[in-house]
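Quick illustration, no need to memorize.
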Amino acid sequence: MAALPAGSGGGKSPVGTRLTVRYRADDPQVVARQSDVDGGAAAVGTAAAAVSALALLTVAALATLSRARQRARPARQDPAGTTP
């Protein structure tokens, strides 16, 4: 039996559920769920950072393309001041 730290995700399981835990050899009172130690959060964080960077690059590319199109299109104006 072990009391898991706050934020470990162990509170989502009903009382009596068997969980694999890891503990410090020099202090067995400090425990954590095995699934919290595996590094899943780091993978999610890395994926989120990659997706946000890709989105930022896409927006920057679209803005650059839009500016290039506006500069390439000369303003059409009739010498008499009327539009054709």
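The two ends are 84 Å apart (CA to CA).
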